[in-house]
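Customer escalation, tier 2.

The customer says the design service returned an amino acid string that "doesn't look like it belongs to this structure." They asked us to rerun it and document both sides in this ticket. The original structure tokens are below, unchanged.
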């Protein structure tokens, strides 16, 4: 399992710059793209929220998809992709791959924690609290607790996790698994847009820019090499514990 240990200053600076420019294009009032983002936000909301207008079955589906517990479905699907990557190992790198998984968990959690601290005072009401007319899942399907509003919708933590992990999968797991993860991320970020809990820009400006910053640190610095050195022994300890249930089920040897 080869790990790039060198700094890539050009790639690092370019990635950070693109992320900052994307963020500034929405954040700064004088930005020439500000009006474009605002109009796109409105159009996307009315289009997707309009799906709740009449179809009762669709309302139930989107209510379930916006339930907090449904986020575990996405986490499990991403986990299954990584599990397949671990089990596909034929060169004795199982411990390194398990260690990598836990490092990515820690790294992404740290990024989101820092973002939450940095944007703590940023107040942005979600479209369901601003625009009219609006179809609220909490009113249409009250028996299912679903997220359809927020007073601090920017950026979307949900989108940060999904887009950052998609980038990690491209980087570490190959383009096929990375592409599958990206499609999955696009699907899983859609329910919040339908319910009006997030604006389009919460996901695709806020979430994507922060995810790009995190991805750039992973792809263009020696950080991942150091992490592999730190966490491979941890992965070696966990491997028997994590893989034994699969052996009991005879899914692996």
């Amino acid at each position: 399992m080869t790990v790039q240990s060198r700094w890539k200053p050009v790639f690092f600076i370019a990635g950070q710059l693109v992320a900052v420019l994307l963020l500034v294009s929405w954040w700064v009032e004088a930005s020439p793209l500000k009006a474009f983002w605002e109009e796109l936000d409105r159009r996307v909301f009315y289009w997707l929220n309009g799906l709740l207008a009449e179809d009762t079955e669709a309302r139930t589906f989107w209510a379930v998809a916006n339930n907090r517990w449904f986020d575990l479905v996405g986490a499990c699907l991403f986990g299954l992709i990584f599990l397949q990557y671990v089990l596909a190992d034929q060169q004795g790198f199982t411990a390194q791959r398990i260690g990598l998984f836990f490092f990515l968990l820690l790294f992404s959690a740290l990024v989101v924690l820092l973002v939450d601290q940095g944007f703590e005072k940023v107040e942005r009401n979600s479209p369901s609290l601003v625009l009219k007319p609006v179809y609220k899942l909490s009113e249409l399907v009250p028996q299912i607790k679903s997220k359809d509003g927020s007073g601090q919708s920017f950026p979307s933590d949900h989108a940060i996790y999904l887009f950052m992990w998609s980038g990690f999968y491209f980087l570490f797991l190959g383009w096929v698994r990375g592409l599958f993860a990206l499609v999955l991320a696009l699907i899983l970020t859609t329910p919040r847009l339908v319910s009006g809990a997030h604006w389009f820009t919460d996901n695709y400006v806020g979430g994507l820019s922060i995810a790009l910053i995190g991805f750039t640190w992973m792809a263009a610095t020696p950080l991942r090499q150091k992490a592999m050195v730190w966490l491979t022994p941890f992965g070696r300890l966990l491997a028997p514990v994590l893989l034994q249930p699969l052996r009991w089920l005879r899914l692996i040897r």
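Tier 2 assessment: The sequence is consistent with the input. Residues 9-243 form a domain with the Vanadium-containing Chloroperoxidase; domain 1 fold (CATH 1.20.144). Residues 95 and 240 are 9 Å apart (CA to CA). Sent an explanation to the customer and offered a walkthrough call.
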